[in-house]
Specification:
The protein is mostly beta strands. 14% of the residues lie in helices and 43% in strands. It has one domain (2-9, 23-106). 19% of the residues are buried. Strands 1, 2, 3, 4, 5, 6 and 7 form a seven-stranded mixed β-sheet that branches. It has helices at residues 72-83, 103-106, and strands spanning 2-11, 23-32, 36-43, 49-57, 60-62, 88-93, 97-100. The longest helix is centred in the middle third of the chain and has 12 residues, at 72-83.
């Protein structure tokens, strides 16, 4: 599994008082194995939370489906995020929005060679 992490800030311009109307700071995680990738986001102000946003297969974006939660790459990505201190893990669904990753998917051991920095 290849892991890429990028840091992002999405903010409005500073107003006359020196404040932003909105300010979001987060990291994007891309977990890939060549053909597939899972994309997750973790906001700086909620450091123990991470949300899986989508699956990418052959360069096409897809919302996750329940069967994706059993995919080896997804399980490895979960383990990686847990080792990075992310204990509140969610995934984006079409109908219910963000929901918690079921407990049975959170207890898998960390695969060897998948340690966060």
């Amino acid at each position: 599994m290849k892991v890429e992490i990028s840091h992002h800030i999405d903010a409005s311009d500073v107003d006359t008082d020196g404040f932003h109307e909105y300010f979001y700071e987060y990291d994007i995680y891309v977990f890939s194995d060549g053909r597939d990738a899972y994309i997750a986001r973790s906001y700086v102000d909620t450091p123990t939370q991470a949300s899986f946003l989508k699956r990418v297969r052959d360069s096409r974006d897809h919302l996750l489906r329940p069967r994706d939660l059993r995919d080896t790459l997804f399980v490895e990505a979960l383990a990686y995020l847990r080792r990075a201190g992310k204990s509140d893990l969610q995934w984006l669904t079409r109908k219910a929005g963000y929901v918690a990753v079921p407990a049975e998917h959170k207890s898998n051991p960390l695969p060897s060679g998948c340690l966060p920095p």
